[in-house]
Amino acid sequence: MSETTLHDLSKLRAGDSIPALQIAPISRTTLALYAGASGDHNPIHIDIDFARSAGLDDVFAHGMLSAAYVGRLITEWAGHTRIRELAVRFVGITQVHDQPNLSGKVVERFESHGEERLRVEVQCANQKGEVKITGEAVVAVA
Questions:
Q1: pTM for this one?
Q2: CB neighbours of 104 closer than 8 A, spacing ≥ 6?
Q3: Residue 75 neighbours by CB distance under 10 Å
Q4: Residue 122: Cβ within 10 Å count
Q5: Which among 99, 137, 102, 119 has a CA at the least distance from the CA of 13?
Q6: Measured between alpha carbons, how far is 20 from 14 in angstroms, rounded to an integer?
Q7: Contact 63/89 with Cβ under 8 angstroms?
Q8: Are 83 and 74 in contact (CB under 8 A)?
Q9: What are phi and psi of 27, to 5 degrees?
Q10: Which of 22, 41, 88, 129 has a CA 20 to 30 Å removed from the CA of 135?
Q11: What is the pLDDT of residue 3?
């Protein structure tokens, strides 16, 4: 996304939502591709036999895959040059076939280091509304 197509953040206030992001359901292909791209080949994420031997019904998504979707939510909205902080907390497991739905809400507008900023609470939930990741981003307004 070019800097000229970024959203205008100048009028946002506490309570305003940012544009949501819906990701296609997590497939086994998604997990295999992420494992290759990230170098995280933990079999709990890609080998159903291994997952079952660990007492699970199936493999599940890498936590950092969902965290990457949170990063995508913020960068598609504000752009990477405006990000000042991004923190996430893993609160649930994203299962195969879950559809990540990401959202955010401005909770504070403030100034820091001579720069106007927004603090945004973010979350990644599945299609049932079960929250998998919570977090917070701080972005520069300009």
A1: 0.91
A2: 17, 18, 73, 74, 77, 120, 121, 122, 123, 137
A3: 18
A4: 24
A5: 119
A6: 17
A7: no
A8: yes
A9: -110, 170
A10: 41
A11: 45
- Which residues in the chain land under pLDDT 50? 1-4
Cα 57 to Cα 85: distance, rounded to the nearest angstrom: 36
pLDDT score of 7: 81
User: Nearest 5°: phi and psi at 68?
Assistant: -65, -35
**pLDDT confidence of residue 62:** 97
Nearest to 115 by CA among 140, 83, 86, 79: 140
Which pLDDT score is estimated for 1? 41
Q: What is the pLDDT of residue 5?
A: 52
Amino acid (one-letter) located at 69: Y
* CB atoms inside a 10 Å sphere around CB 93: 14
Q: Which residue has the tokens 């960068």?
A: 75
Contact of 105 with 17, CB cutoff 8 Å? yes
Residue whose token pair is 């890609």: 46
Helix, strand, coil shares, percent, the chain, to 5: 30, 35, 35
Q: φ and ψ at 7, to 5 degrees?
A: -70, 145
pLDDT at 2: 41
